[in-house]
Amino acid sequence: MEKVSNNSCQLSVKQEEPTLVPPAEETEKGLYFLSNLDQNIAVTVRTIYCYKSDSKGNQDAAKVIKDALSKVLVHYYPAAGRLTISSEGKLIVDCTGEGAVFVEATADCSIEELGDTTKPDPITLGKLVYDIPGAKNILEIPPLVAQVTKFKCGGFVLGLCMNHCMYDGIAAMEFLNSWGETARGLPLKVPPFLDRSIFKSRNPPQIEFQHQEFAEIEDISETSTKVYKEEMHYSSFCFDPEKLELLKTKATKDGVLEKCTKFEALTAFVWRARTQALRMKPDQQTKLLFAVDGRPRFDPPIPKGYSGNAIVLTNSICSAGEQLENPLSFTVGLVQKAVEMATDSYMRSAIDYFETTRARPSLAATLLVTTWSRLSFHTIDFGWGDPLFSGPVALPEKEVILFLSHGKERKSINVLLGLPASAMKTFEELMQI
Fold first, then answer.
1. Which residue in the list 38, 75, 121, 164 is annotated as catalytic?
2. Domain check: are 87 and 154 in the same one?
3. Cys staple from 129: which of 46, 136, 326, 428, with CB 3.0 to 4.6 Å?
4. Which position among 94, 293, 381, 386 bears the catalytic label?
5. Is 381 assigned a catalytic role?
6. Distance (Å, whole) CA 419 – CA 94
């Protein structure tokens, strides 16, 4: 069974003193508005990007990446500021131009010795991302913290800690690709669109939907107790194209659904398996949350290069009994309805709902699926080619399951999750399809 610390080398990393990297030119100062879509996901996300050694080695890696960061921050200047609280009691960026935090480090082994980096491992992989000492909350952590760790083999790892309130997955990917383009002396393919006021709430707010993503579910199965008290085991499950096709066939074979996507089939399959593995009582309500990209769904569509959060959480709720007594098509149908629900009016209603209530999505008896499988983090090139591997250091919450693309063609999906030891054993058995 996989424990949290699943990697083979006892990684020892020596970090230099952190420095600040301000934008290379004077940038706008003052307060920068964050929308209600940014407020709800103000968690730090830690990721790593591993680069193998090539003929030029890693001697200049930190300098090249640091210089490029200074230049790219001219375009993305809010990331050089600091988070603070506005007069309305919301998160806002104070564009001070102080700069991102940058740390150089060296490791005592080769990248290969890191072992299986496809599983989240906060203990080992966490050493590759710099933690701000003594930070008590997100206001004390700059929006962007970078660490470049050189390995003995000539390879290096870029470890990032970024606040989700700054970027969703697509915006983060565009920022990182712009950073890579700058390092290679190229112009930005997608310049950032920084004005987030396009997502201002309506005055007066118009709440037209129920917004059960915020609903508090009574945890009669004591799921949260299990998830938070027992030791968590982390694992990853690879679904290759054949397995994904098999799931789609399974979901449509009873004729209830005409068709479904790979995402819908996989999400339903893991939601059902997790409900079963956690031994939820039949009348326990269970909630599914997942983010839908609003860029093509807003009317009018969001400008290209929108540099913020344009994702909205959609949801589905049913009882564990309903889920497990019905065929897979029932749960896939629920996922499809949740996808269809995310219309322009629903998303604007969600923005207004937060304005009125300041509610946070409740995670009791909930599964939150985060999909990175459509994001091209694997193409971020600072001049050393594409990363050997890119992915998260840890999952942001214990209720989160992450979908990552995998393999040469990126056609497989790796499902990463943590569960209490007892539940993980059952979950592993249920993954055999």
1. 164
2. yes
3. 46
4. 381
5. yes
6. 38
Tell me the average pLDDT across 142-171.
97
Left (φ > 0), alpha (ψ -120 to 50) or beta: where does 122 sit? alpha
State yes or no: is 233 an active-site residue: no
Closest CA to 66 of 101, 107, 36, 112: 101
Is the residue at 389 inside a domain?
Answer: no
Amino acid 9: pLDDT:
61
CB atoms within 10 A of CB 189: 10
Kindly tell me the sign of the dihedral angle through the C-alpha atoms of 148, 149, 150, 153.
negative
pLDDT of residue 1: 24
Based on the domain organization, do 223 and 253 belong to the same domain? yes
Q: Are 155 and 114 in contact (CB under 8 A)?
A: no
Average pLDDT of the chain is 92
Question: What confidence category does residue 2 fall into, taking pLDDT thresholds of 50, 70 and 90?
Answer: very low
Q: What radius of gyration do the chain's Cα atoms show? A: 22
Q: Give the burial class of 85: count Cβ atoms within 10 A of its Cβ; 0-12 exposed, 13-18 middle, 19 or more buried.
A: exposed
| Single-letter amino acid code for the residue at 64 | V
Q: How many domains does the chain have?
A: 2
Does some domain include residue 360? yes
Give domain status of residue 5, yes or no.
no
Q: Which pLDDT belongs to residue 408?
A: 67
Assess contact for 164 and 32: CB atoms under 8 A: no
User: In terms of domains, do 322 and 366 share one?
Assistant: yes
Q: Which of 297, 284, 317, 310 is nearest to 212 (CA)?
A: 317
> Could you tell me the residue range of the domain that residue 279 belongs to?
212-373+410-431
pLDDT at 280 over 90: yes
Q: What's the CATH number where 327 sits?
A: 3.30.559.10
Q: Are residues 318 and 268 in the same domain?
A: yes
Specify the DSSP element, H or E, that contains 236: strand 232-239
Q: The whole model's pTM is what?
A: 0.92
Q: Which long-range contacts (CB under 8 A, 24 or more apart) does 183-190 make?
A: 183/64, 183/65, 183/67, 183/68, 183/382, 183/383, 184/381, 184/382, 184/383, 188/72, 188/75, 190/304, 190/305
Do residues 387 and 371 make contact, with C-beta atoms less than 8 angstroms apart? no
Percent of the chain scored above 90 by pLDDT? 79
Yes or no: say if 86 and 31 are a contact pair by the CB < 8 Å rule: yes
Structure tokens at 141: 């952590």
Decide if 8 is inside a domain: no
